[in-house]
């Protein structure tokens, strides 16, 4: 199912852009999209809207949003601010971010949220047991022309050997101690540590 969804995502984006699908080197996530006609460096301010949540765990929406915010900020590519889903300015816009936004909607969003682009997305799935798993669907939309500048979709499952391998590589990068095995086990059972790993992989693609 994971490989099927990833393949469909790649095909859809390829159909939209004609190019720009990247296979990232390990230990990054599998596939992401960078618009070849846009430049993230040209975006100064991004409003990161709290993720929608398709799981039955309410708290995961804000926990994942905050974890992503922290790791993306470390890249220092642009200014980023979190917009809670109950923010009155955001709610007043009534935007359907799954549809093509028109120039008027984009202008209003830029003015009200004081941003050059929107980062929106969804926690597509989340399970803390019997093993941690998380799915994310994310994109950055330019408020200047409505283009999707960057997009990302991935499912992480700690029971998957590929994810296990990437967790090991992630731990090697962030620690030089001899606690790699213990660290891996913590990532496998701690939602907070797992979200840090996931967010690291997302930020890697920006």
Question: What labels describe this entry?
Answer:
globular, eight-stranded mixed sheet, alpha/beta, 206 residues
Describe the largest sheet: 8 strands, mixed
The averaged pLDDT comes out at 83
Order of helices and strands: HEEEEHEHHEEEHHH
Classification by helices and strands? alpha/beta
Query: Could you tell me the number of beta strands?
Result: 8
**How much helix is in the residues?**
40-55%
Head-to-tail CA distance between termini: 26 Å
Topology:
Layout: H1 2-17, E1 21-23, E2 31-34, E3 45-49, E4 52-53, H2 60-73, E5 79-83, H3 88-93, H4 103-113, E6 117-127, E7 133-142, E8 148-157, H5 161-174, H6 180-189, H7 191-204
Helix pairs in contact: 2-7, 5-6, 6-7
Task: Describe this structure as you would to a colleague.
- The protein is an alpha/beta fold.
- It has seven helices and eight strands; from the N terminus they run αββββαβααβββααα.
- The chain has helices at residues 2-17, 60-73, 88-93, 103-113, 161-174, 180-189, 191-204, and strands spanning 21-23, 31-34, 45-49, 52-53, 79-83, 117-127, 133-142, 148-157.
- Strands 1, 2, 3, 4, 5, 6, 7 and 8 form an eight-stranded mixed sheet that branches.
- α5 (161-174) packs across α6 and α6 crosses α7 (191-204).
- The longest helix has 16 residues, at 2-17.
- The radius of gyration is 17 Å and the shape is globular.
